[in-house]
Amino acid sequence: MKSFTTISPNYCIQEHRLICGIDEDYGGSVGWFKAESKYPAEGRKVKALERYFRMFNKEPENWTRRGYEYQWRYTGISFLTMDAANDYVSNHRHTYEIRVYVKFRRSQLTRS
Fold this sequence. Notes:
Blueprint: E1 2-22, E2 29-34, H1 44-56, E3 63-79, H2 82-92, E4 98-111
Antiparallel strand pairs: 1-3, 1-4, 2-3
């Protein structure tokens, strides 16, 4: 009985996720989030919100200050070919930010 090991690529789909609510001491970035938005404020708005927070020691109405970071997460979707994975990405890119990640899996075949 002979044993063979193969390494086959598995083309996985990852999505770029915003993780909110991280403690400021943990690391990550600190941002200002409006109640109905899932993206942090940018530019001059951040400076104005920080100035308000320092002056009054409280968050402005309808704004929350919290830690966040972006991470690439595996979605559970994978393909056997790069072409199939790229087709999926091009058809679903409008829904969320995604990419193809190549993961190698080892499988052991036994031959009698």
